[in-house]
Amino acid sequence: MIKIIKPGLYSTIQDKGRVGMQSYGIPCSGTMDSFSSDLANKILNNSGNSAVLEITMVGPVLEFVYETVICITGANLSPLLNNKIIKMNNPIFIKSNDILSFGVLKSGLRSYIAVLGGFKSEKVFGSRSMFKNLTRAVKLAKNDVLNFNKDIIFKSSKINLNKTSNIDNKIVVFKGPEYDILNSSQKDFISSKKFRISNNYNRMAIQLTDLLSNTLEPIITSMVMPGTVQLTPAGNLIILMKDCQTTGGYPRILQVEEKSINSLAQLKKDSELWFSLKI
Amino acid sequence: MIKQIYNLNYHRFNSKSILISWPNLINDDVLFDVLSFKKSIHLTNKALVDVINAYSSLLVIYDKDIDNIYDEIESLKLVYSNKKKDTVESKIVWKIPVCYNDYFGTDLENISKKTNIDKDEIIELHYKNTYRVCFLGFLPGFLYLSNLNKRLYFPRKVQPDLNIIKGSVGIGGNQTGVYPSNSPGGWNIIGNSPVSFIDKDKLHKISFASPGDSIKFYPIDFKEHNYISKNLDSYIIESEVIND
What we know:
The structure holds two protein chains of two kinds.
Chain A: E1 2-6, E2 12-14, H1 34-43, E3 52-56, E4 61-64, E5 68-76, E6 79-81, E7 84-85, E8 91-94, E9 99-102, E10 107-115, E11 145-146, E12 170-175, H2 184-192, E13 195-201, E14 205-208, E15 222-223, E16 228-231, E17 237-240, E18 247-248, E19 252-256, H3 258-264, E20 272-277
Parallel strand pairs in A: 12-20
Antiparallel strand pairs in A: 1-4, 1-11, 2-3, 3-10, 4-9, 5-8, 5-10, 6-7, 6-9, 12-19, 13-14, 13-20, 14-17, 15-18, 16-17, 16-19
Chain B: E1 9-14, E2 17-21, H1 28-42, E3 48-53, E4 57-62, H2 69-82, E5 92-98, H3 108-115, H4 119-128, E6 130-136, E7 143-146, E8 161-164, E9 168-172, E10 175-178, E11 183-185, E12 188-192, E13 214-219, H5 222-230, E14 238-241
């Protein structure tokens, strides 16, 4: 069991999300950077769908009541155990009353804390991913309690650690269903521009600062997914992310490849990105 | 009856999914063709995560990267040409109680003023029609309905309401629907339904309605709305099966 002493900026329990439920209007949710969350679970020999804690920019302060083993991956939020620096991407042995805290954000945006056996929080529609109006908790709050199974024996895994970082500003994309409605100068703009992320970004969507003026008609409501890049009449480019709605009425001009969604999860305000179009 | 054959567009949506598009129309013929293709795809042995539909499109999501996109598109084209021509017209009509009044219908007054239609007539025009459930989206359990009376078309709000309450029945442009949970939104609210639109205890069929079903709203008073709200556990949504 863990007591939340401080919740951090935006900390949620996430797993692989609600897969196969989009036809009910249920967003898929799940970890924003699945490369990093998968790595944390693999290092602990957890099953792939074990729930992790996703933390954003400012980390929480957590008090462990029981002993366990954890692993921290993703962005470097300067993790500390009892105020001593600990290694990321490694199993960390936790004793009763240990305090996990974080310091300065050194790179990236989102970090993952996996625990042996995974966190055991409320499951709704087959997933523990926190989501408004589905799970009771939307994000961690002070004095919350997080549960995990304390009777699991740790078996170390032989894992190849040559790739632990997922930060990439090159975003690989497919043409979206409405890509060909764009004229050639609009297409050039998308392929050549170095875009910047605005201050409007979260688990639902990332809005870019640069505008692409257009006179595109809205489309009749159709499917969207995490990675869909929409173009609004006002010229905003919006990249949908894991908590996005399942349908939308704006033209879909690009679709970000799954691996690049992981990269996007680590970018923040003023981060640069460019699109690389898959033929 | 000879049903129309549509010229479909196939598009690689991402490495694991293909988007199939019909002409951009909102009508039963297109919808039932979409649903019948959806059903046929489910009957194949393809390894799928999901097949999702909207008004005039289908998104086929595979459980791993598609090896050869052209081959897979040809395979889907074959499924379409081989599918049974009789469509999957659903015969279920769900009866949904709605309390239409100024208390719940916070925009009734405004719609009445702007359209010059009496509130009573607005309400009658709304519950008189039988609506088609086209698909679910926007929010868990939100049903996109078609067949709204043209006189009730009303533009979405420029500034969305920050908190529309669960059960709110609204009109947005040429569409009508019910908010299944509290949410910000831009639709104009004319009433409230106390029934549940999502069942969190299920993993399949979390909504009582499926694409292709029909819905008919019927007016209830405040007292009945209150009663149903307090006794949701024992409330069963009525339905009728249309006989030919």
